[in-house]
Amino acid sequence: MFKKIYLLLLPISFAALQLTAQVIHLGIDRLEQSGFREVAGKRIGLLTHPAGVNRHGVSSIDILRSSPNTELVALFGPEHGIYGNEKANVPVDNKIDRRTGLPVYSLYGEFRWPSDKMLRGLDALVIDLQDIGVRSYTYVSCMLRAMESCFKNGVEVIVLDRPNPLGGIKVDGPPLNKEWRSYVGDIFTPYVHGLTIGEIAIMARYCLGWIRPDRVSPQQLKAAKLKVIPMRGWTRSMQWPDTGLRWIPTSPYIPDLSAVLGYAMTGLGSQEGGFSHGIGTAYPFRLLRHNKKSAAEIKRALELKNIPGLAYTIMQTKTANGSLVEGVYIKVMNWKAVRPTEISFHMMQLSAKWEKPNPFAHAKNINLFNKHVGNSAWWTEISQRGSKARVNQFVGRWESQSKAFQKNSRRFYLYK
Q1: Is the pTM higher than 0.90?
Q2: pLDDT 10s digit of each residue in the chain, 416 long?
């Protein structure tokens, strides 16, 4: 049923994907190539950020402003704003964009859902956001909440699809339980989900409970209009370097693909245990240090864990203030073998071994951590059992759940 629905909405030739695999045409490229057919004659808003560009690096804002027979009347910004220059976790105000003269409505300030007033007069909201393939990254949450407001107000949603930089095959990590749903985890997927942002939009539209019933009535959801403009040339086996596209930082701490991979691997490692993750150096989420252990000791401890697909090297670098530091850089040797989130939980187990008393038994940021992980079971385990926490048992359980999710989500795939 679902497959028929989305294929009717989004015709795509898998043969064409194979024939043009080396040239990636993004959703914005496909929209432009169609002569802007999907937005013709419409007053539109655009939810985007600096990575919202076509394959030549031209901003989607400029492309839509110049499109014929279309009126771009408002911009909407996620966390970090439409130009990516706002700090993380800092509310952003509404403003007038000096470059275009258009109103910019912040969806990371007073409002997390576009208000009725923001959407008034719009025929469609176009969404062009680059995700990084993990659940606890707020752009997907921003898209989902924008969809809810649009469905409530009868505004069409048009999602311009983009690659998952981690590829579309790797699915890994703990799933999200309903009680821990939040802005840092708003979709019911494993932590590494293996989906494009367009595929997530389709799942949200048709999977029971993803669209909040207190926000959108059954009648409004039934009448909701969603179009996803798929890419051409992208296949699920591609990671970002395979696309030939230039990476534009999606947020201050994700400057390159190295950080994308690192965020998937160490982003869940709680700061309570004395580890730092390379923030403030040239290797965010890849360079590990611990306040009680040398780099050599950290490297040896991680090597003894025998985590598949990873290796470690000691590296010296400088922090943003010029201080020289030494840490352990995580190397991905075999992406197929890696379970990205696994190392985060081994790091927490090592912290419980090295820090006395157990730093997780009386930690302060429990709720925020559980929102990122998506459940409280692991925190109970690490806080009660400390260095004896059963990491492999949890990782094995999450691996089985990830495989089940991947099997069930295939009917929403847009790409072979």
Answers
A1: yes
A2: 333 333 333 333 333 333 444 699 999 999 999 999 999 999 999 999 999 999 999 999 999 999 988 999 999 999 988 887 666 666 777 888 889 999 999 999 889 999 999 999 999 999 999 999 999 999 999 999 999 999 999 999 999 999 999 999 999 999 999 999 999 999 999 999 999 999 999 999 999 899 999 999 999 999 999 999 999 999 999 999 999 999 999 998 999 999 999 999 998 876 678 899 999 999 999 999 999 999 999 999 999 999 999 999 999 999 988 999 999 999 999 999 999 999 999 999 999 999 989 999 988 889 999 999 999 999 999 999 999 999 999 999 999 999 999 999 999 999 98
CA angle 59, 62, 66 (to 5 degrees): 145
323: amino acid identity, one letter:
S
CATH topology for 2-161+196-236? Rossmann fold (3.40.50)
234, 28 contact by CB (below 8 A): no
Are 65 and 72 spatial neighbours (Cβ–Cβ below 8 Å)?
yes
